[in-house]
Amino acid sequence: MPNVTCPYSPCCFPGRQAYTAFLPSCMANAGREEEFRNSLEAGSPVMRHSIDLSLPKRIPRTPEKPLPFIRYVLQHCSPGMKWQAGAAYLFEIISTAADTLVTWALGRIVGVIATAGDRLWEKVTYELLILAGLWTLRNISYRCREYMERHYVPELLNTTRALLFARLIQQSQAFLHANFAGVLANHVRRAGDVISGLRDKMQYSIIPLAVRFVTAGVLLWGITPQFALFIPGFLVVGAICAVLTAPKWTMLSLQQAEKSSLLTGYIVDSTTNLSIVQQNVGWREELNRLDHAQDQMTQTFVNRLRWVSWFWGIFDTIMTFFLCGFMALVVHGWQQGNVSTAQLAMTVGLSMNLFGAIAGTVNLLSSKFDDIGILQEALHKISTPLSILDKPGAPDLQVVQGAIDFRDVDFSYIPGQPVFEKLNLFIPAGQRVGLVGVSGAGKSTLCHLLLRAHDVTGGGIYIDGQNIAEVTQDSLHASISVIPQEPVLFHRTLGENIRYGRLAATPAEVESAARAAEAQNFIATMPKGYDTLVGERGVKLSGGQRQRIAIARAIIKDAPVLVLDEATSALDSETEKAIQSAMMHAMEGRTTVVIAHRLSTLSHMDRIVVMEHGRVIEDGSFEDLLAHGGVFARLWKLQAGGFLPDALPQAVGQ
Ligand SMILES: Nc1ncnc2c1ncn2[C@@H]1O[C@H](COP(=O)(O)OP(=O)(O)OP(=O)(O)O)[C@@H](O)[C@H]1O
Ligand SMILES: [Mg+2]
């Protein structure tokens, strides 16, 4: 693996949702590194640092709890960033202390005014200079803090997002199928915002509050120690309120975050399928569903606000009694002559200052619970244990010839509903095999298992005698080129989409692959040629054009094993014929599995395997199977050069 600048610091990049939707294709092309690199290109130079990009070992399970997760993020930040963060906190402490001391300086001014007599201006000028000095110190410290923030905050946010994204792109297809792509993308984006929010709250509430209390304590102690004892009193009241209410607050916030994510996922799902909505005049249905999702979210929102109102009502009442008691004590001291006018003025200022600070802090803390709810939900989802793991110390797959062996393979998506039971299929190195069967026979699943998109539940799959479960997934994916049944493209340029098969490919190689896939002609007619953006999931291209780009991508990858799942189904016969020679060329010397419903496309295969309900029911050469007069021959007749019927049993039984 090459050394590149930090993979953990990509900036926000456009179309994150697109990444999430295409994870399988991204992984099959061993594209994790490219995802990082792309995000880096959008990143600011401020946050780059050198790190070895040896995925996936570098991305352990992300902690599920907010605090351990924050520690985990900090571990991945640069030392410079930690220094800058430390300096920012130090400047925050200095500025807050100066701010609190301003009340002390004001108190002194009041005292001087009350006692100076004729030498008023002489004395007041000195006090005003102290006040101006404190204001200046406060001002400079704030500006220094902001300078530090400009440097370390982007790295903190980007590292958070990058770590979650890195984790997400390792999740299995089963995980992706079980979740809305929009929700996952939203989790990654919002987690960064939340970390920022938590940092703000820490920096702008907890630290200033602590500094204010310490400074005020020292000033009050100077008047009388009894006054200073009120400071812990304030703290105890605030802490009791926070501790007693935290679980409820977190629970309500978590509920709101969950419903909010579902709403986002729903909107993304509807928007992605907007054409289906319009074609079926389904907008009322979609609005109804939106209403339902919004109602659920509103309910959690109202529940939380009701709770917030109650909390504040009670908290303010307690604090009012507390503050009035304190003020009465100070006035009593003044009446007894134990407290001077200057001290009285300072104490009034300080207590108002503290009351405002504690109320502001509790307010900020309340929104912190919202943040924790959002973060907890994101972490819980993205930290889902990876279902497909490399074994510790797993070697890379070494493909010398490319023989594939499915040995006694059992597999089911849903427990109790097996797709394969004791499936055996050996494909010698370099053989071109056509896989035939009606819809649902298990052809695509067989290819997914070969790519280890799912783990088999029994038996094993071997490439050149090596169990694919025992080797690294990256090396497995690098050894297999796939043209999927539904080719999807990134919302990037045509050139980038082709080059995804081999990132080091030169422009000339990209062009030659496009030519081999018969894509060159239509690319030439595009407004910006290879630099034309293809739209989300490649919507700006026809199905056949998308397939040709996917074929070019597979050609450029040049892997020893080639899998074509209905790779040419969307091509017209003429184009298909035109790329046939390129495909044959691509298959040369490679073990190839071709799934096709159009049986005529399989006439050049060395061998045809017919599947039914997850079993191999016929196996032989194209000619042998036709001559044999079995299922394949009947399908051939039924198809009359067209496609397979949808249901085999009736058709075959005749
Ligand atoms: N992600 C999934 N979760 C649950 N079941 C699935 C999933 N994918 C496929 N199946 C089921 O597994 C069986 C085999 O599906 P598969 O996609 O392998 O069929 P196929 O032979 O490729 O069909 P087609 O010719 O229509 O592409 C089907 O019954 C299908 O419903
Ligand atoms: Mg299929």
Helix/strand layout:
Layout: E1 3-5, H1 16-21, H2 23-28, H3 32-41, E2 50-52, H4 66-75, H5 79-115, H6 120-168, H7 173-177, H8 181-223, H9 225-272, H10 274-279, H11 283-336, H12 341-382, E3 404-414, E4 417-427, E5 432-436, H13 443-450, E6 458-463, E7 466-467, H14 473-479, E8 480-483, H15 494-499, H16 507-516, H17 520-524, H18 543-557, E9 561-565, H19 573-587, E10 591-595, E11 607-612, E12 615-620, H20 622-628, H21 631-639, H22 648-653
Parallel strand pairs: 5-10, 5-11, 8-9, 9-10
Antiparallel strand pairs: 1-2, 3-4, 3-6, 6-7, 11-12
The protein binds adenosine-5'-triphosphate (ATP) and magnesium ion.
Magnesium ion is lined by residues 443-444, 485, 565.
